[in-house]
Amino acid sequence: MAGVPQATKVELATPRVGRWLMRTMLRACGRRPAQANLPQRWTVQLHPRNVMTACLVVAGLLASATPGLSSTLDELPLDRWKELREVERYQLNVAEKYYREKNWKVGLAEYEKFLTLYERSVGAPYAQLKWSLCQIQLRKQNTAIKEGFQSVIDYWPDSPQAIAAAYYIGQAYKEMGETRKAKQAFESVLGEHPQHFAATLAAVDLVDLTMIDGDIKARVAFWKQLTFDMPRTKESKRYCETASRSLAAHQFEFGVFDDAVGALATTYAETSLAVQVAGVVRDPIKRLLGDEKRQVQGEQLADRAAAWLRSHLPPAGTTDAEQQAARQHWYLIADVQAAAGNAEKVAETYEEILQKYGTADEPLGRYANWLKSTSKYDEARQQYARFKDRIEGQNQIAYSFRQQGNYEAAVAAYQTNLARDVEHAVRWHEQIAATYRSARNYPAAIAVYEQLWKTDAKDAEKWLWALATTYRDAGKYKEAIGHYRQCNNFPNNYSEMAACHRAMKDYKEAIILYGQIVGGAPNSAAWAMLQIGHTQEQAGNKELAIKAFQQVCKSYPRASYASQAHAHLQNKYKITVTLGGGTDK
Predict the structure, then answer these.
(1) pLDDT tens digits, one per residue of 152-161
(2) Closest-CA residue to 358 (of 390, 326, 401)
(3) Helical H runs in 34-103?
(4) Which of 148, 245, 319, 504 has the fewest CB atoms lying closer than 10 Å?
(5) Which of 15, 31, 48 is the last residue of a domain?
(6) Which of 189, 254, 258 is nearest to 225 (CA)?
(7) CB within 8 Å of 386: residues ≥ 6 apart
């Protein structure tokens, strides 16, 4: 019959999650699912208003079940959500929608509406909490504290939101700069609810506050609580792990080595503990060595860490995987000694590795890279020359010459590979051209790229772009423009052509090219319009430049370039424009 809502057919695939959703929808609509196992697909007839109810329930349950959301302070627990009546769920979902959209004023009004209509609901403390969080976002911290969070604590002291509200009071005071009140609030949460997630967050905030007042003793105490005392749930785990690393770094620096290892052991399994010890100890070593009065302590810490790592060496074994694991452990020892700047011990460690495991390319490469880091390039090249892979060894030798700025020697080394590795001649020609460009020998680089452009048809576009860019770097802008024009990567080629025209003070052509980008490349339009403004400015066209900058603000108010144009208009021309109210084009 016309005007009579018809029943709606809902069909769900029901394995696992599907079955759970089906049961949830039926219960929400007053239907009892069969006791027997549900079929793989199930169809049910629901009245339209019940479909909406079911969808709201499922949406709420999915939000509660989403990783990272459940059991957090600003989410309604699943058991409380299920106790809400249909009308309450509807109103709360409306408020939540605006909250998620960061429409704080409307969200505030919707939460207040819920409180007015359903003040005795189990969702009331949650609505009051979210009302308070909206006030925080509106920069009304005092209102949030006195009329919001405190009301949750006073009227619903046994609700989960009361603990959250106590934490948020501390956070609000912290944001206001009221460190004493913030500290009191956080310490209260930590003392009264030590196993709650809010206590973990409070301890993290208390650590931050010790950074302000310089109370290292208190900071260490909070790190210890987070490391050893806090339950590591899905939500709190990352905070506790970070604290364990911070605590270990502090203890390494102040001579409590075994305790530092113990702190890391709360987070990392024995198989990865050595990697973490080596990683965390390096910064304390550097800090100690950077302080003239504590350099001896830095050296002692490095020796202690290296000795600990040696005492925890895995058995070498016979398989490739076992030997690789053992080598990796030895690299940690070398890294720790390198952090201490002890070149002699680093070299001894690498020689010991090579003696134990043979002259494989990997340890030789690591050894050579460390030698380069200490500017011992000749010694590094000696190691590269020992590579079993002669081509890669020669490649590294050539690159080391480039790093030193010895471009002639680098080209000669690459040419050696060109003769040895004819099959990959393109690779070595490219490296030779790049070396010439680094040396600013642009004619030689252009000659190589010209050859590649003609002979390597499958990558012709790549070499065309390299040619254009090299001509640009050489200051030959007309030639660069000619090559950019042949490229097919609009709008990048147009932006480069425009830059070349600006370099030649041919501002009119540059503006035409930027205009074509504005019209043909929406994602780059705001940037191109900003460049039109700067180009008009370079050309001495003040009024046209101002119009272009204003156009950026008007047409692209949400783009970062609008902020740049806005700032430029204010700083250079003392003109104020409004970024809001426009629509993106």
Answers:
(1) 999 999 998 9
(2) 326
(3) 48-65, 78-83, 86-100
(4) 319
(5) 48
(6) 189
(7) 359, 364, 393
As for how many domains the chain has, the answer is 2
Answer for the pair 267, 298: CB distance below 8 angstroms, yes or no.
Answer: no
Q: Quote the Cα angle for 537-542-544, to 5°.
A: 90
Query: Which amino acid, residue 394?
Result: Q
Q: Are 264 and 274 in contact (CB under 8 A)?
A: no
Q: How many angstroms separate the CA atoms of 113 and 468, rounded?
A: 64
Evaluate whether 437 touches 466 at the Cβ level (below 8 Å). no
pTM: 0.72
- CB-count exposure of residue 188 (10 Å: 0-12, 13-18, 19+): middle
Which amino acid does the sequence have at 24? T
The single-letter DSSP state of residue 32 is P
Do residues 562 and 553 touch, judged by C-beta distance below 8 A?
yes
109 CB-near residues (< 8 Å, 6+ apart): none
Look-up of token digits 């700069």: 177
In the structure encoding, which two tokens stand for residue 309, read together? 């790592």
Higher pLDDT, 169 or 18: 169
User: Dmax of the chain from CA atoms?
Assistant: 93
Contacts of 584 (CB under 8 A, 6+ apart): 555, 556, 557, 558, 559
Q: For residue 362, what are the CA distances in angstroms to 10, 392, 397, 450?
A: 61, 11, 15, 36
Measure the CA angle with vertex 36, ends 35 and 42; round to 5°: 100
Cβ atoms < 10 Å from Cβ of 529 = 26
Q: Virtual CA dihedral for 405, 407, 409, 412, nearest 10 degrees?
A: 150
Residues 6 or more apart whose CB falls under 8 angstroms from that of 35 comprise none
In a domain, 44, yes or no: yes
- The residues near 511 (Cβ < 8 Å, ≥ 6 apart) are 498, 532, 535, 536
Q: Is 368 part of any domain?
A: no
Domain membership of residue 1 (yes or no) is yes
- 8, 20, 140, 151, 463 from 169: Cα distances, Å: 47, 38, 12, 11, 62
412: tokens are: 């000669």
Q: What is the Rg, in whole angstroms, of the alpha carbon atoms belonging to the chain?
A: 33
Please give the Cα distance from 20 to 172 (Å, whole number): 39
- Name residue, tokens 């039109």: 532
The tens digit of pLDDT for each residue in 269-312 reads 998 999 999 999 999 999 999 999 999 999 999 999 999 999 99
Give the residue numbers spanning the domain of 532: 501-585
pLDDT band at 580 (very low <50, low <70, confident <90, very high): low
Which bin fits 544, alpha (ψ -120 to 50), beta or left (φ > 0)? alpha
Measured CA to CA, the distance from residue 504 to residue 515 in angstroms comes to 18
Neighbour count for residue 327 (Cβ, 10 Å): 17
Tokens of residue 2, six digits: 């016309």
Q: Answer yes or no: is 366 within a domain.
A: no
- CA–CA dist 96, 56 (Å, integer): 12
